[in-house]
Design goal:
The protein is an alpha/beta fold. The strands form five sheets. Strands 13-12-11-10-9-8-7-19-14 form a nine-stranded parallel beta sheet. Strands 2-3-1-4 form a four-stranded antiparallel beta sheet. It has a two-stranded antiparallel sheet with strand order 5-6. Strand 2 and strand 3 form a beta hairpin. Helix 6 crosses helix 7. The protein is elongated. The two termini are 39 Å apart.
Protein backbone atom coordinates (compact mmCIF):
# COMPACT_ATOMS: atom_id res chain seq x y z
CA UNK A 1 0.00 0.00 0.00
CA UNK A 2 1.18 3.52 -0.82
CA UNK A 3 0.01 6.69 0.92
CA UNK A 4 0.72 9.99 -0.85
CA UNK A 5 0.81 12.90 1.58
CA UNK A 6 -0.37 16.37 0.66
CA UNK A 7 2.27 19.00 -0.19
CA UNK A 8 3.51 20.94 2.80
CA UNK A 9 2.58 18.42 5.50
CA UNK A 10 4.94 18.74 8.46
CA UNK A 11 7.39 15.95 9.33
CA UNK A 12 5.81 15.84 12.77
CA UNK A 13 2.41 14.92 11.30
CA UNK A 14 3.98 12.40 8.92
CA UNK A 15 5.81 10.60 11.72
CA UNK A 16 2.67 10.61 13.85
CA UNK A 17 0.80 8.80 11.07
CA UNK A 18 3.69 6.38 10.58
CA UNK A 19 3.76 5.57 14.30
CA UNK A 20 0.00 4.94 14.30
CA UNK A 21 0.16 2.64 11.26
CA UNK A 22 3.03 0.60 12.68
CA UNK A 23 1.43 0.39 16.13
CA UNK A 24 -2.15 -0.37 15.08
CA UNK A 25 -1.58 -2.53 12.00
CA UNK A 26 1.84 -4.15 12.49
CA UNK A 27 3.24 -3.00 9.15
CA UNK A 28 6.63 -1.54 8.32
CA UNK A 29 6.44 1.97 6.87
CA UNK A 30 9.11 3.57 4.72
CA UNK A 31 9.16 7.33 4.11
CA UNK A 32 10.23 8.80 0.77
CA UNK A 33 10.53 12.58 0.69
CA UNK A 34 10.03 13.56 -2.93
CA UNK A 35 9.75 16.89 -4.68
CA UNK A 36 6.74 18.66 -3.20
CA UNK A 37 5.34 15.77 -1.16
CA UNK A 38 6.18 12.69 0.89
CA UNK A 39 5.16 9.10 0.17
CA UNK A 40 4.63 6.36 2.73
CA UNK A 41 5.22 2.78 1.60
CA UNK A 42 3.55 0.12 3.73
CA UNK A 43 5.07 -3.38 3.71
CA UNK A 44 3.24 -6.26 5.37
CA UNK A 45 -0.36 -7.44 5.61
CA UNK A 46 -2.36 -4.38 4.54
CA UNK A 47 -5.58 -6.19 3.57
CA UNK A 48 -7.31 -5.19 6.80
CA UNK A 49 -6.40 -1.48 6.56
CA UNK A 50 -9.39 0.75 5.70
CA UNK A 51 -8.35 2.85 2.69
CA UNK A 52 -11.39 5.14 3.00
CA UNK A 53 -10.54 5.95 6.60
CA UNK A 54 -6.99 6.83 5.64
CA UNK A 55 -8.20 9.03 2.78
CA UNK A 56 -10.27 11.06 5.26
CA UNK A 57 -7.06 12.12 7.03
CA UNK A 58 -6.51 15.84 6.34
CA UNK A 59 -2.83 15.25 5.55
CA UNK A 60 -3.41 12.44 3.01
CA UNK A 61 -3.71 13.17 -0.71
CA UNK A 62 -4.56 9.61 -1.87
CA UNK A 63 -4.10 5.94 -0.99
CA UNK A 64 -3.24 3.16 -3.47
CA UNK A 65 -2.91 -0.58 -3.15
CA UNK A 66 0.16 -2.02 -4.86
CA UNK A 67 -0.54 -5.26 -6.70
CA UNK A 68 3.07 -6.11 -7.53
CA UNK A 69 4.80 -8.47 -5.09
CA UNK A 70 7.88 -6.24 -4.89
CA UNK A 71 7.58 -3.24 -2.60
CA UNK A 72 10.91 -1.63 -1.74
CA UNK A 73 12.08 -1.79 -5.38
CA UNK A 74 8.73 -0.51 -6.70
CA UNK A 75 8.66 2.94 -8.30
CA UNK A 76 5.22 3.50 -6.76
CA UNK A 77 6.88 3.41 -3.35
CA UNK A 78 9.83 5.52 -4.46
CA UNK A 79 9.00 7.77 -7.47
CA UNK A 80 12.42 9.44 -7.54
CA UNK A 81 15.34 7.65 -9.24
CA UNK A 82 17.71 6.06 -6.76
CA UNK A 83 21.34 7.17 -6.89
CA UNK A 84 23.83 4.57 -5.64
CA UNK A 85 27.16 5.83 -4.35
CA UNK A 86 30.09 3.53 -5.15
CA UNK A 87 33.01 4.88 -3.12
CA UNK A 88 32.32 8.41 -4.30
CA UNK A 89 31.14 7.49 -7.83
CA UNK A 90 27.38 8.09 -8.24
CA UNK A 91 25.38 5.67 -10.41
CA UNK A 92 21.78 6.55 -11.22
CA UNK A 93 19.70 9.68 -11.36
CA UNK A 94 21.13 11.05 -14.61
CA UNK A 95 24.45 12.19 -13.13
CA UNK A 96 27.80 12.46 -14.85
CA UNK A 97 28.54 9.71 -17.35
CA UNK A 98 31.11 7.32 -15.88
CA UNK A 99 33.01 4.31 -17.17
CA UNK A 100 33.71 1.04 -15.36
CA UNK A 101 36.36 -0.94 -17.19
CA UNK A 102 38.48 -4.03 -16.77
CA UNK A 103 39.15 -7.62 -17.78
CA UNK A 104 36.76 -10.54 -17.42
CA UNK A 105 39.24 -12.41 -15.19
CA UNK A 106 42.12 -11.32 -12.99
CA UNK A 107 45.09 -13.37 -14.20
CA UNK A 108 48.27 -11.71 -12.90
CA UNK A 109 49.61 -8.60 -11.22
CA UNK A 110 51.06 -7.24 -14.45
CA UNK A 111 47.78 -7.82 -16.27
CA UNK A 112 45.38 -6.19 -13.80
CA UNK A 113 47.64 -3.29 -12.81
CA UNK A 114 48.45 -2.61 -16.45
CA UNK A 115 44.79 -2.68 -17.45
CA UNK A 116 43.88 -0.47 -14.48
CA UNK A 117 46.37 2.15 -15.60
CA UNK A 118 45.11 1.95 -19.18
CA UNK A 119 41.44 2.35 -18.31
CA UNK A 120 42.11 5.14 -15.84
CA UNK A 121 44.09 7.01 -18.51
CA UNK A 122 41.12 6.47 -20.84
CA UNK A 123 38.73 8.05 -18.31
CA UNK A 124 37.32 5.10 -16.36
CA UNK A 125 35.95 5.76 -12.87
CA UNK A 126 35.87 2.15 -11.58
CA UNK A 127 37.87 -1.00 -12.25
CA UNK A 128 36.18 -4.37 -12.70
CA UNK A 129 37.75 -7.80 -12.69
CA UNK A 130 36.68 -11.33 -11.84
CA UNK A 131 38.53 -13.09 -9.02
CA UNK A 132 35.90 -15.83 -8.58
CA UNK A 133 34.58 -17.10 -11.95
CA UNK A 134 31.46 -19.24 -12.50
CA UNK A 135 32.18 -21.61 -15.39
CA UNK A 136 29.97 -24.09 -17.21
CA UNK A 137 32.79 -26.65 -17.23
CA UNK A 138 34.49 -27.72 -13.98
CA UNK A 139 37.73 -27.99 -15.96
CA UNK A 140 37.76 -24.34 -17.04
CA UNK A 141 39.70 -21.62 -15.20
CA UNK A 142 37.70 -20.80 -12.05
CA UNK A 143 39.53 -17.58 -11.20
CA UNK A 144 42.30 -16.82 -8.72
CA UNK A 145 39.92 -16.51 -5.77
CA UNK A 146 41.09 -14.49 -2.77
CA UNK A 147 44.50 -14.02 -4.40
CA UNK A 148 42.74 -12.30 -7.29
CA UNK A 149 41.08 -9.87 -4.88
CA UNK A 150 44.49 -9.03 -3.47
CA UNK A 151 45.70 -8.18 -6.98
CA UNK A 152 42.63 -5.99 -7.48
CA UNK A 153 43.55 -4.19 -4.25
CA UNK A 154 47.04 -3.60 -5.63
CA UNK A 155 45.51 -2.15 -8.77
CA UNK A 156 43.25 0.07 -6.67
CA UNK A 157 46.20 1.28 -4.61
CA UNK A 158 48.13 2.03 -7.80
CA UNK A 159 45.34 3.89 -9.60
CA UNK A 160 42.82 4.95 -6.96
CA UNK A 161 39.99 3.28 -8.91
CA UNK A 162 37.24 1.60 -6.83
CA UNK A 163 36.91 -2.09 -7.71
CA UNK A 164 33.98 -4.24 -8.90
CA UNK A 165 34.07 -8.03 -8.62
CA UNK A 166 31.67 -10.98 -8.56
CA UNK A 167 30.79 -12.91 -5.42
CA UNK A 168 29.92 -16.60 -5.70
CA UNK A 169 29.01 -17.85 -2.22
CA UNK A 170 27.52 -16.48 1.04
CA UNK A 171 30.65 -17.55 2.93
CA UNK A 172 32.66 -14.92 1.03
CA UNK A 173 30.51 -11.96 2.09
CA UNK A 174 32.93 -10.93 4.83
CA UNK A 175 35.83 -10.96 2.39
CA UNK A 176 33.94 -8.82 -0.14
CA UNK A 177 32.73 -6.44 2.57
CA UNK A 178 36.35 -5.77 3.45
CA UNK A 179 37.92 -5.55 0.00
CA UNK A 180 35.39 -4.75 -2.79
CA UNK A 181 33.66 -1.44 -3.53
CA UNK A 182 30.81 -2.76 -5.73
CA UNK A 183 29.77 -6.40 -5.24
CA UNK A 184 28.50 -8.12 -8.38
CA UNK A 185 26.00 -10.98 -8.26
CA UNK A 186 26.14 -12.74 -11.61
CA UNK A 187 23.38 -14.12 -13.81
CA UNK A 188 23.83 -17.69 -12.58
CA UNK A 189 23.32 -16.56 -8.97
CA UNK A 190 20.41 -14.19 -9.53
CA UNK A 191 18.09 -16.55 -7.66
CA UNK A 192 20.60 -17.86 -5.14
CA UNK A 193 18.38 -16.68 -2.32
CA UNK A 194 20.81 -17.47 0.49
CA UNK A 195 23.42 -15.32 -1.28
CA UNK A 196 20.89 -12.53 -1.90
CA UNK A 197 19.93 -12.43 1.78
CA UNK A 198 23.54 -12.33 2.90
CA UNK A 199 24.31 -9.61 0.33
CA UNK A 200 21.50 -7.63 1.90
CA UNK A 201 23.50 -7.48 5.12
CA UNK A 202 26.52 -5.89 3.42
CA UNK A 203 27.19 -2.16 3.55
CA UNK A 204 28.62 -2.26 0.01
CA UNK A 205 26.34 -1.63 -3.01
CA UNK A 206 25.28 -4.59 -5.18
CA UNK A 207 25.33 -4.96 -8.97
CA UNK A 208 22.64 -7.56 -9.74
CA UNK A 209 22.72 -9.15 -13.17
CA UNK A 210 19.58 -10.58 -14.75
CA UNK A 211 19.39 -14.37 -14.97
CA UNK A 212 19.70 -16.16 -18.27
CA UNK A 213 15.97 -16.89 -18.57
CA UNK A 214 14.30 -14.75 -15.92
CA UNK A 215 11.37 -12.38 -16.22
CA UNK A 216 11.50 -8.71 -15.22
CA UNK A 217 9.42 -9.42 -12.13
CA UNK A 218 11.67 -12.29 -11.04
CA UNK A 219 14.68 -10.03 -11.51
CA UNK A 220 13.19 -7.24 -9.43
CA UNK A 221 12.10 -9.74 -6.79
CA UNK A 222 15.73 -10.82 -6.45
CA UNK A 223 16.60 -7.17 -5.82
CA UNK A 224 13.76 -7.12 -3.30
CA UNK A 225 15.45 -9.96 -1.38
CA UNK A 226 18.58 -7.85 -1.04
CA UNK A 227 16.66 -4.72 -0.07
CA UNK A 228 14.42 -6.54 2.40
CA UNK A 229 17.56 -7.72 4.19
CA UNK A 230 18.69 -4.14 4.70
CA UNK A 231 20.79 -3.13 1.68
CA UNK A 232 18.85 -0.78 -0.61
CA UNK A 233 21.86 0.16 -2.77
CA UNK A 234 21.13 -2.15 -5.70
CA UNK A 235 21.98 -1.61 -9.38
CA UNK A 236 20.29 -3.80 -12.00
CA UNK A 237 22.22 -5.01 -15.04
CA UNK A 238 20.68 -6.35 -18.27
CA UNK A 239 23.21 -8.74 -19.84
CA UNK A 240 21.16 -10.66 -22.38
CA UNK A 241 18.87 -13.68 -22.10
CA UNK A 242 18.95 -17.15 -23.59
CA UNK A 243 16.80 -17.64 -26.70
CA UNK A 244 16.68 -20.07 -29.63
CA UNK A 245 19.32 -18.04 -31.48
CA UNK A 246 22.78 -19.61 -31.42
CA UNK A 247 24.74 -17.08 -33.47
CA UNK A 248 25.26 -14.78 -30.48
CA UNK A 249 26.12 -15.83 -26.97
CA UNK A 250 22.82 -14.39 -25.69
CA UNK A 251 20.11 -12.04 -26.97
CA UNK A 252 20.26 -8.51 -25.53
CA UNK A 253 16.78 -7.56 -24.32
CA UNK A 254 16.67 -3.82 -24.90
CA UNK A 255 12.98 -3.64 -23.99
CA UNK A 256 14.08 -4.29 -20.41
CA UNK A 257 15.41 -0.74 -20.14
CA UNK A 258 12.17 1.27 -20.47
CA UNK A 259 10.22 -1.50 -18.74
CA UNK A 260 12.44 -1.56 -15.65
CA UNK A 261 12.55 2.23 -15.51
CA UNK A 262 8.75 2.21 -15.32
CA UNK A 263 8.57 -0.64 -12.82
CA UNK A 264 11.42 0.30 -10.46
CA UNK A 265 13.40 3.27 -9.20
CA UNK A 266 16.66 1.30 -9.16
CA UNK A 267 19.38 2.21 -11.69
CA UNK A 268 19.54 -0.09 -14.70
CA UNK A 269 22.65 -0.58 -16.79
CA UNK A 270 23.36 -2.66 -19.87
CA UNK A 271 26.13 -5.17 -20.62
CA UNK A 272 26.24 -5.74 -24.40
CA UNK A 273 29.64 -7.47 -24.21
CA UNK A 274 28.38 -10.60 -22.48
CA UNK A 275 25.14 -10.50 -24.45
CA UNK A 276 26.82 -10.80 -27.84
CA UNK A 277 30.13 -12.45 -27.03
CA UNK A 278 31.65 -10.74 -30.06
CA UNK A 279 33.67 -7.55 -29.73
CA UNK A 280 32.46 -6.08 -33.03
CA UNK A 281 28.83 -6.17 -31.82
CA UNK A 282 29.52 -4.17 -28.67
CA UNK A 283 29.42 -0.81 -30.44
CA UNK A 284 26.03 -1.12 -32.21
CA UNK A 285 24.41 -2.76 -29.18
CA UNK A 286 25.72 -0.04 -26.90
CA UNK A 287 24.35 2.65 -29.19
CA UNK A 288 21.00 0.87 -29.33
CA UNK A 289 20.88 0.74 -25.53
CA UNK A 290 21.44 4.49 -25.33
CA UNK A 291 18.80 5.06 -28.00
CA UNK A 292 16.08 3.26 -26.00
CA UNK A 293 16.83 5.29 -22.87
CA UNK A 294 19.47 3.49 -20.82
CA UNK A 295 20.47 6.20 -18.37
CA UNK A 296 23.48 4.10 -17.48
CA UNK A 297 25.32 2.09 -20.08
CA UNK A 298 27.62 -0.67 -18.81
CA UNK A 299 30.05 -2.26 -21.22
CA UNK A 300 31.84 -4.98 -19.30
CA UNK A 301 34.47 -5.71 -21.94
CA UNK A 302 37.44 -8.05 -21.66
CA UNK A 303 39.93 -5.32 -22.32
CA UNK A 304 42.82 -7.60 -23.27
CA UNK A 305 41.54 -11.16 -23.27
CA UNK A 306 38.66 -10.62 -25.68
CA UNK A 307 40.76 -8.66 -28.13
CA UNK A 308 43.50 -11.24 -27.95
CA UNK A 309 41.00 -13.98 -28.73
CA UNK A 310 40.02 -12.03 -31.81
CA UNK A 311 43.57 -12.00 -33.18
CA UNK A 312 44.12 -8.41 -32.09
CA UNK A 313 41.70 -7.05 -34.70
CA UNK A 314 40.43 -4.62 -32.11
CA UNK A 315 43.84 -3.20 -31.32
CA UNK A 316 44.18 -1.32 -34.58
CA UNK A 317 44.23 2.43 -34.14
CA UNK A 318 41.65 4.32 -36.16
CA UNK A 319 40.58 7.94 -36.55
CA UNK A 320 37.30 9.81 -36.46
CA UNK A 321 36.35 13.43 -37.10
CA UNK A 322 34.34 14.99 -34.29
CA UNK A 323 33.75 18.35 -35.95
CA UNK A 324 30.07 17.50 -36.44
CA UNK A 325 29.54 17.51 -32.67
CA UNK A 326 28.80 21.22 -32.19
CA UNK A 327 30.31 23.09 -29.29
CA UNK A 328 32.24 20.13 -27.95
CA UNK A 329 35.48 19.84 -29.81
CA UNK A 330 37.08 21.95 -32.49
CA UNK A 331 37.49 20.48 -35.95
CA UNK A 332 40.28 17.96 -36.05
CA UNK A 333 41.18 14.32 -36.10
CA UNK A 334 41.13 12.36 -32.84
CA UNK A 335 43.24 9.20 -32.63
CA UNK A 336 41.57 6.20 -31.04
CA UNK A 337 42.93 3.39 -28.88
CA UNK A 338 42.68 -0.38 -28.48
CA UNK A 339 39.10 -0.84 -27.27
CA UNK A 340 36.04 -0.69 -29.57
CA UNK A 341 34.24 2.54 -28.77
CA UNK A 342 30.93 4.29 -29.18
CA UNK A 343 30.41 7.96 -29.96
CA UNK A 344 26.97 9.25 -29.13
CA UNK A 345 25.52 12.69 -28.54
CA UNK A 346 22.04 12.55 -27.07
CA UNK A 347 19.83 15.61 -26.93
CA UNK A 348 17.00 15.76 -24.44
CA UNK A 349 14.07 17.39 -26.20
CA UNK A 350 11.44 19.33 -24.30
CA UNK A 351 9.03 16.40 -24.51
CA UNK A 352 11.64 14.02 -23.09
CA UNK A 353 12.38 12.26 -26.38
CA UNK A 354 16.07 11.45 -26.84
CA UNK A 355 17.68 11.75 -30.26
CA UNK A 356 20.91 9.84 -30.77
CA UNK A 357 23.54 10.99 -33.26
CA UNK A 358 26.09 8.31 -34.09
CA UNK A 359 29.65 8.96 -35.21
CA UNK A 360 31.41 6.20 -37.10
CA UNK A 361 34.78 4.93 -35.88
CA UNK A 362 36.47 4.69 -32.51
CA UNK A 363 37.36 7.48 -30.14
CA UNK A 364 39.18 7.74 -26.79
CA UNK A 365 37.06 7.12 -23.68
CA UNK A 366 37.88 10.60 -22.41
CA UNK A 367 36.20 12.17 -25.46
CA UNK A 368 33.28 9.73 -25.22
CA UNK A 369 32.72 10.65 -21.58
CA UNK A 370 32.81 14.35 -22.48
CA UNK A 371 30.24 13.86 -25.24
CA UNK A 372 27.82 11.84 -23.12
CA UNK A 373 28.27 14.02 -20.03
CA UNK A 374 27.47 17.05 -22.15
CA UNK A 375 24.31 15.26 -23.25
CA UNK A 376 23.28 14.42 -19.67
CA UNK A 377 23.60 10.63 -19.97
CA UNK A 378 24.64 8.50 -17.02
CA UNK A 379 27.12 5.65 -16.59
CA UNK A 380 29.16 3.44 -18.88
CA UNK A 381 31.10 0.36 -17.88
CA UNK A 382 33.62 -1.23 -20.25
Amino acid sequence: MVIVMKPGVSQENIHALVDALERDHGVAVGITNGVGCSILGLVGDTAHIDMDKLTMNDDVERVMRVQEPYKKANRKFHPEDTVVDVSGVPIGGGGRFTVIAGPCSVESEDQIVGVARDVKAAGAALLRGGAFKPRTSPYSFQGMGADGLELLLEARADTGLPIVSEIMAPRDCGLFEEKVDLVQIGARNMQNFDLLKEAGKLSKPILLKRGLSNTYEEWIMSAEYIMASGNENVILCERGVRTFESYTRNTLDLSAIPAIRRMSHLPIVVDPSHAAGMYWMVEPLAMAAVAVGAEKLILLTDVRGLLRDRNDEGTLISQVRLSEVPGLVSEGVITGGMIPKVACCVDAAENGVRRTHILDGRIPHSILIEVLSHAGIGTMIW
